[in-house]
């Protein structure tokens, strides 16, 4: 609109078959005043630019007759990555050039004219190559023309979208651009209808049987009436059965429907953590992916901004960015991008960095189109599953469910067989009674099957994940909650996780002079200036830091010029703050340095600078820029020991240089060690001047370092400028959190890229390292050199120790060597992401726990207790390269603040505050999930045992259960559903972290749980049997079976039903505790949901007994006060009974302990007498 004055911009829309509908306007009707007479110009250029990628894919899909998917688009995406993309882009731009050239707002028409010529040349050459194939050789002139054309294409993509690389777009244009070009947000997945969820719920086998049974009962009762007999309410029992099923279906469907909304909330929460760095109004800011619009200038790098959220055109630098397009193409080969290349959404930056302009967003981008079609597909599964069917919890639950199912089937068969034999063969009942016998059998089966168990699991996981969200843990997969409860090892990063990620430069060594600022109230920059450092020296330092930092690392200044915030890499931000405190303007330095600036001529920005981005392997970053006197200057920063090994000279205070001597190296190493002992991260600074005429292509050649690792030729023979010590204080809550981990039986290991002494200092402050890990040499020095063997390893030594060369000469992992190291290992310094992966893999695969001899030796000699099962590993990570380790670990934690999108995608849980204490919170909630399910199992199985025994006794004695089918359904299907919600909502207690993790092979049903279940079930059965057989005489009521035989509902059986329910209700309170606690009411008021459900259940039971005469098979008029007193009194008796069970179980444990101790003493005396060895 700004360029062409278009009043109406037709938009392309995606129709149902995924192809583009709508037609781009005519490109030729642009007048010389830049005014479109038919809504073309910019509209045409942008429309084709946006749709070109998808249109090509759609056409290919249309020809193949298949849907748009990975297989059919692989070749097209390969084409779009190369010359065809530039051809499409150039073709599009060519059509809008006349309007752009003639526009009066253009700053440099001559530039556009030259660009026009270059692009037309490129288009002609590409078309010629398509027809005749590529020429054998490019002449230097042709190669230069191609390069200019690519640069011009990228530049004009920005121009036509009215967005400059240095200023970006204006915030005032955002809504207009979103309206014209579309939003980058993809519509939420379409929800399943409530009716569909009801249909899925009714597929349950037991529910189907109950429906059939209800229908049969209605038919039999209405069709077998005697002559002259009226039906009346004979249909109500069957109808009540169907209504019970309906309620269960509605409850299940409602929960599933709520889960869908929970998934949408989770998705939106995840999207809110996906941020990118863009330029708007000349300011580098962070925005979430959904807010990116066409025309935004996007900064990406392989370090922490790797994922591409929209289709873009690369602006620069030339050859500085390599992309991984395997998610779209399936090809693992990295693609080098040049200015003018299209960078597709859904791909990731694997090496380097770049600046690009967004040309297509949302459903108009390649990844957006695919995502939209996946969301529309019927078989799309969301990420919010109830859990992994192979997780330890679900394996155990499956086993329990199968065992209960078999027992229930056997009990149902016995009940049916006994009723038939006794009723039909012995008592001579009519054949029509088969229906009631069948009702009894199916009811027994329905009671035996733990219908509430899946609901309890879902509710426990969902409740925990929602509460964890409030405590800064965003759970992506529900089963991650449970898995975290089993964690035995946490491998944690340092920066931002153990530390506050508030980095500040506190020490500086420059020109071999040390500046250590001891006063926390004084800024290092002010201190250095007060100490009289050379202005020329500080200018060089400012230039080095300002140039050799990433674009997205910026400072935000207030109106008075004070720093009020930062964006980007925290370490680089600390360096920029030092530059600011020294009185320099880093932004001005960037903008006025050729090769680094994005000001002025676009071609200068795109071609003159050379950047070598940071990688975990090189542990350094470099940036080459032209010098005014000719040649280049290469600025470098990185790990001090890496840079120092590359230096051959050192800078002096008078700006001269001299050869680096051993004394100079010792000064730098001593200061670096001093910084590290104080817990500071130590960075080295250096530079190298390259003479005029130096072949810049050679800079990317590699050579071997003294340690055998590869290095760029450019990053050798450096001049050492100095060191910077950056302080990142430990989070105050971390030592206590790590102490909780040790009390909970969870090992904590620090895995960091920092040097050994910095890592050891932080680990000791945090409590990961303790006094017993150091040799007692009388100096009390807690340094790396004073640690015991294998407690701390550097990444290089670690790799050499756990990898061996096989017969084929290939390096392979040696588990035996790993097992000798890992029990002692507490700190892994100077580690790489591959080391994290190796550590996670080795811990997962270790079977050391099975070697009892080694475990006893470790406990005796080193006081190291090995967990008696496979290690369950939690791993933290924030970088793109951490993703494999996060996937390999049992639970991957990604950093929500500093983490990359790739790391977040690979993780199971996202730490929204990057805080280690939040990991401990996750462990507590994970254990609470396990405990909540145990509580429900204890409750459910007690009900099942009592109800099944009662039904079986009734079948043998009276050929009918004293508890009617509808009453048992109320107890089992409805009340248990409420109980599952009540017990699943129990908040965690600190005592959960005062015991070791749950062994994967341990049964969910502990001995104490069995004692509680059988103790309470025995009490309930005794009460019910007493009421069943002695109740009529004691209470003066007619026996229930006699009244029932006359077709009436008895007070006797109603009393049994009411008493049974109240015993179950009071036992629900008992089931809140699993460890034999005396006060079962402790903390009950902190769970209002539990209290509310208990009250609601009791109220419903009262209504059923008093008013549910026919529907629930209770006596007319309900029960009198005496009967209610008996019911509630017997129910309350469950509370003292539980205390008796606790006492008896405690005495049994004490007896077994004394007996086992006697056996061990006898065995040890035999060992001493026979072998003279220590007792085992």
TrEMBL record:
One of its GO terms (cellular component) is plasma membrane. It is an enzyme of class 7 (translocase). The chain crosses the membrane at residues 205-223, 235-258, 404-426, 438-463, 1010-1030, 1050-1069, 1089-1112, 1124-1147. InterPro entries: ATPase_P-typ_cation-transptr_C (IPR006068), ATPase_P-typ_cation-transptr_N (IPR004014), ATPase_P-typ_cyto_dom_N (IPR023299), ATPase_P-typ_P_site (IPR018303), ATPase_P-typ_TM_dom_sf (IPR023298), ATPase_P-typ_transduc_dom_A_sf (IPR008250), ATPase_P-type_domA (IPR059000), HAD-like_sf (IPR036412). It is a multi-pass membrane protein. It catalyses: Ca(2+)(in) + ATP + H2O = Ca(2+)(out) + ADP + phosphate + H(+). Its main location: membrane. GO terms for molecular function: ATP binding; ATP hydrolysis activity; metal ion binding; P-type calcium transporter activity. PANTHER family: CALCIUM-TRANSPORTING ATPASE (PTHR24093:SF369), CATION TRANSPORTING ATPASE (PTHR24093). This is P-type Ca(2+) transporter. It comes from Grammatophora oceanica. The lineage of its organism: Eukaryota, Sar, Stramenopiles, Ochrophyta, Bacillariophyta.
């Amino acid at each position: 609109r700004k360029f062409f004055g278009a009043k109406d911009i037709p938009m392309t829309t995606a129709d149902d078959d995924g192809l583009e509908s709508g037609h781009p306007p005519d490109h030729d009707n642009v007048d010389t005043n830049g005014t479109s007479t038919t809504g073309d110009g910019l509209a045409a250029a942008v429309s084709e630019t946006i749709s070109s990628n998808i249109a090509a894919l759609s056409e290919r899909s249309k020809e193949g007759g298949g849907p748009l998917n990975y297989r059919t688009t692989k070749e097209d995406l390969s084409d779009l990555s190369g010359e065809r993309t530039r051809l499409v882009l150039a073709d599009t731009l060519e059509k809008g050039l006349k309007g752009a050239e003639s526009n009066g707002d253009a700053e440099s028409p001559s530039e556009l004219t030259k660009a026009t010529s270059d692009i037309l040349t490129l288009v002609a050459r590409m078309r010629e190559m398509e027809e005749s194939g590529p020429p054998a050789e490019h002449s230097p002139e042709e190669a230069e023309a191609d390069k200019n054309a690519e640069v011009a294409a990228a530049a004009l993509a920005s121009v036509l979208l009215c967005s400059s690389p240095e200023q970006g777009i204006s915030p005032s244009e955002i809504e207009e651009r979103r309206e014209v070009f579309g939003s980058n947000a993809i519509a939420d997945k379409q929800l399943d209808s409530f009716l569909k969820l009801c249909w899925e719920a009714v597929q349950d086998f037991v529910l189907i049987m109950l429906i059939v049974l209800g229908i049969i009962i209605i038919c039999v009762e209405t069709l077998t009436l005697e002559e002259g007999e009226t039906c009346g309410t004979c249909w109500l029992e069957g109808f009540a059965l169907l209504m019970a099923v309906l309620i269960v279906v509605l409850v299940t469907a409602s929960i599933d429907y709520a889960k869908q909304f929970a998934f949408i909330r989770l998705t939106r929460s995840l999207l809110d953590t996906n941020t990118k760095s863009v330029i708007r109004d000349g300011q580098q800011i962070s925005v979430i992916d959904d807010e990116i619009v066409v025309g935004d200038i996007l900064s990406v790098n392989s370090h922490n901004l790797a994922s591409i959220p929209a289709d873009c055109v690369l602006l620069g630098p030339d050859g500085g960015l390599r992309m991984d397009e395997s998610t779209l193409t399936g090809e693992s080969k990295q693609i080098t991008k040049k200015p003018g290349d299209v960078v597709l959404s859904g791909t990731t930056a694997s090496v380097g960095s770049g600046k690009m302009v967004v040309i297509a967003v949302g459903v108009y981008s390649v990844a957006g189109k695919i995502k939209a079609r996946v969301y529309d597909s019927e078989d799309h599964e969301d990420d919010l599953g109830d859990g992994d069917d192979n997780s330890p919890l679900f394996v155990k639950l499956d086993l329990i469910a199968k065992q209960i199912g078999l027992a229930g089937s056997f009990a149902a068969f016995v009940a049916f067989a006994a009723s038939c034999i006794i009723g039909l063969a012995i008592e001579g009942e009519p054949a029509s009674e088969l229906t009631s016998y069948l009702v009894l059998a199916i009811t027994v089966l329905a009671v035996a099957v733990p219908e509430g168990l899946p609901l309890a699991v879902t509710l426990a996981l969902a409740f925990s994940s929602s509460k964890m969200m409030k405590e800064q843990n965003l759970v992506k997969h529900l089963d991650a909650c449970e898995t975290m409860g089993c964690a035995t090892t946490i491998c944690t990063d340092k920066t931002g996780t153990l530390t506050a990620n508030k980095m500040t430069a506190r020490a500086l060594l420059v020109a071999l002079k040390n500046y250590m600022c001891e006063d926390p109230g004084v800024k290092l920059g002010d201190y250095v200036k007060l100490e009289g450092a050379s202005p020329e020296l500080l200018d060089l330092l400012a230039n080095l830091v300002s140039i050799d930092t990433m674009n997205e690392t910026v400072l935000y200044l207030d109106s008075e010029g004070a720093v009020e915030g930062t964006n980007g890499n925290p370490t680089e931000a600390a360096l920029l703050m030092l530059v600011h405190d020294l009185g320099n303007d880093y932004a001005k330095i960037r903008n006025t340095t050729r090769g680094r600036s994005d000001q002025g001529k676009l071609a200068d920005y795109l071609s003159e600078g050379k950047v070598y981005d940071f990688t975990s392997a090189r542990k350094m970053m470099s940036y080459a820029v032209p010098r005014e006197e000719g040649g280049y200057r290469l600025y470098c920063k990185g790990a001090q020991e890496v840079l120092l090994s590359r230096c051959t000279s050192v800078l002096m205070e008078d700006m001269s240089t001299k050869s680096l001597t051993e004394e100079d190296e010792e000064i730098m190493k001593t200061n670096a060690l001093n910084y590290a002992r104080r817990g500071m991260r130590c960075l080295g600074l250096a530079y190298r001047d390259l003479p005029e005429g130096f072949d810049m292509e050679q800079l990317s050649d590699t050579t071997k370092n003294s340690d055998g690792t590869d290095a760029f030729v450019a990053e050798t023979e450096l001049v050492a400028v100095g060191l910077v010590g950056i302080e990142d204080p430990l989070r105050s809550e971390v030592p206590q959190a790590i102490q909780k981990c040790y009390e909970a039986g969870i090992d904590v290991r620090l895995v960091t890229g920092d040097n050994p002494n910095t890592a050891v200092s932080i680990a000791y402050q945090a409590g990961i390292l303790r006094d017993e890990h150091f040799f007692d040499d009388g100096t009390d020095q807690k340094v790396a050199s004073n640690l015991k063997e294998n407690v701390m390893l550097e990444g290089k030594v670690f790799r050499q120790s756990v990898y061996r060369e096989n017969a084929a000469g290939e390096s392979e992992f040696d588990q035996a060597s790993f097992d000798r190291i890992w029990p002692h290992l507490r700190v892994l310094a100077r580690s790489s992401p591959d080391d994290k992966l190796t550590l996670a893999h080795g811990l997962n695969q270790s079977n050391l726990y099975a070697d009892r001899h080694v475990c006893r030796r470790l406990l005796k000699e080193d006081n190291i207790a090995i967990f008696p099962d496979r290690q369950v590993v939690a791993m933290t990570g924030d970088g793109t390269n951490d993703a494999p380790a996060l996937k390999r670990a049992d639970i991957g934690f990604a950093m929500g603040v500093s983490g990359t999108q790739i790391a977040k995608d690979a993780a199971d849980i996202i730490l929204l505050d990057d805080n280690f204490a939040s990991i401990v919170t996750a462990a507590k909630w994970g254990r609470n999930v396990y405990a909540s399910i145990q509580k429900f199992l204890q409750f459910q199985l007690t009900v099942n045992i009592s109800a099944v025994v009662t039904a079986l006794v009734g079948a043998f004695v009276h050929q009918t259960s004293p508890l009617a089918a509808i009453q048992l359904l109320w107890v089992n299907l409805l009340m248990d559903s409420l109980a599952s919600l009540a017990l699943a909502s129990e908040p965690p207690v600190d005592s959960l972290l005062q015991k070791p993790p749950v062994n994967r092979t341990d049964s969910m049903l502990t001995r104490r749980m069995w004692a509680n279940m059988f103790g309470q079930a025995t009490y309930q059965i005794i009460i019910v049997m007493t009421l069943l057989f002695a109740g009529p005489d004691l209470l003066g009521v007619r026996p229930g079976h006699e009244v029932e035989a006359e077709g009436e509902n008895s007070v006797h059986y109603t009393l049994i039903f009411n008493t049974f329910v109240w015993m179950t209700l009071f036992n629900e309170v008992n089931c809140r505790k699993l460890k034999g606690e005396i006060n079962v009411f402790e903390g009950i008021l902190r769970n209002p949901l539990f209290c509310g459900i208990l009250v609601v259940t009791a109220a419903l039971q009262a209504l059923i007994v008093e008013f549910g005469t026919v529907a629930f098979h209770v006596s007319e008029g309900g029960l009198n006060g005496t009967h209610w007193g008996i019911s509630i009194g017997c129910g309350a008796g469950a509370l003292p009974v539980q205390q008796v069970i606790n006492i008896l179980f405690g005495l049994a444990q004490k007896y077994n302990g004394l007996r086992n101790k006697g056996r061990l003493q006898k065995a040890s005396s035999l060992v001493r007498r026979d072998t003279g060895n220590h007792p085992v």
